[in-house]
Amino acid sequence: MLETMAELPHLLAAAIVIVIEWLIPLPFKYSPLRLCALLADAIALKVNKPGTERQRRISGFMSLLTYFVFVAVIVWSLLFVMPYDIWTESVLLYISLSYHSVSKVNKALEEALANKQNTLAKDYLSETASFDTKRLSSLGLTKGALEIEINAWVTTWLMPVALFIALGGLASLAYRVLDIVTKQWLALNPKYSDFGLPTTAIKTSLDWLLSALIAPIFSVFKSSPGWWSLFQRNKNRWPAEQSLVDLVWMSIVAAGCRIEMAGPTMFNDVKVPRLRINEGQKPNHGAIAQLRHWLARFTGFLLLLILLFWFIGNFNN
User: Fold this and answer.
1) Among 77-91, 180-194, 277-291, which range has the highest average pLDDT?
2) Residue in 123, 69, 127 with CA at minimum distance from that of residue 103
3) Tens digit of pLDDT for each residue in 201-237?
4) How far apart are CA 183 and CA 13, in angstroms?
């Protein structure tokens, strides 16, 4: 029986880690992966210099290679002194997940908005946002929280879990390492325009397949009429500095929560134009809670699906 139960261990391990991270989320500021953000900042400080578009893109690509070499050496050094088994892989998955810590902050932000404490809400949003929050209205705070929430679920939950099941713990970790440097060198930020484009392009190519498979199913868990039309209408005007995968997920959220998404944003007091998705919708101050519950339902569904496949794999004979 023990030998039989050992079939498909990555499915069972994923389910266990998902539950643990749901109950005991690891805030990014306490995560070992925080070191990757510091490394990315240090490299950019040395290399991200003025130049032509081509020079900055080449510089960004070479910097990405340097970043991964440094991270690979650190990870290899750690794995050299410990066994690479299912337990180690499970730890790598746990480190790679951070969605529920972001969701917890957004829940506090939602409560602050409900109590008309906009300054406190801005402080909460600044913990997870890469853009300026000082001048945001209550609608801007809501939109920012929604964008961060859905992005965090896709990049710090869905993708790491899928890669863990398919390829193992190192794949989850490698993706999160890429996700972190993409956010640190955000191409939408004028400071990293062109320099961050190679990193964004590589990450987008990895995100497309799973998002194409999962996004339509996700949209069914809350009525989201017209999300595909929103995507089609806006895809040609979406900034090249931001992934089209982001547009897919924000279109679903905009349709499902009946709210306007995206729009202009600020980086270091510089306004960056960006189209509005579902423009003209009335403010929906309950949208943060709606999205959180929507994601909780879908996360629970995927958890049950993982356990079902593990059960079938172990007891079908």
Assistant:
1) 180-194
2) 127
3) 999 999 999 999 999 999 999 989 899 999 999 999 9
4) 28
Per the structure, the count of domains in the chain is: 1
Instruction: Write down the pLDDT at residue 33.
Output: 95
Q: pLDDT tens-digit profile of 297-314?
A: 999 999 999 999 998 888
Distance CA 219, CA 248 (A): 11
Q: Taking all residues of the chain, what is their mean pLDDT, rounded to a whole number?
A: 93
| Secondary structure string (H, E, C) spanning the chain | CHHHHCCCHHHHHHHHHHHHHHHCCCCHHHCCCHHHHHHHHHHHHHHCCCCCHHHHHHHHHHHHHHHHHHHHHHHHHHHHCCCCCHHHHHHHHHHHCCHHHHHHHHHHHHHHHHCCCHHHHHHHHHCCCCCCCCCCCHHHHHHHHHHHHHHHHHHHHHHHHHHHHHHCHHHHHHHHHHHHHHHHCCCCCHHHCCCCHHHHHHHHHHHHHHHHHHHHHHHHCCCCCCHHHHHHHHCCCCCCCCCHHHHHHHHHHHHHCCCCEECCEEECCEEECCCEECCCCCCCCCHHHHHHHHHHHHHHHHHHHHHHHHHHHHHCC
Sole residue written with tokens 């946002």:
129
For residue 283, the 8-state DSSP code is P
- How far the first Cα of the chain sits from its last, in Å, is 12
Rounded distance, CA 151 to CA 167, Å? 22
pLDDT of residue 4: 38
| Locus of tokens 């499970």 | 90
HSE, side-chain direction, 13 A CA sphere, residue 17:
30
Domain holding 130, by residue range, is: 2-315
User: What is the reported pLDDT for 8?
Assistant: 82
Residue 1: is its pLDDT beyond 50?
Answer: no
Q: How confident is the model at residue 6 (pLDDT cuts 50, 70, 90)?
A: low
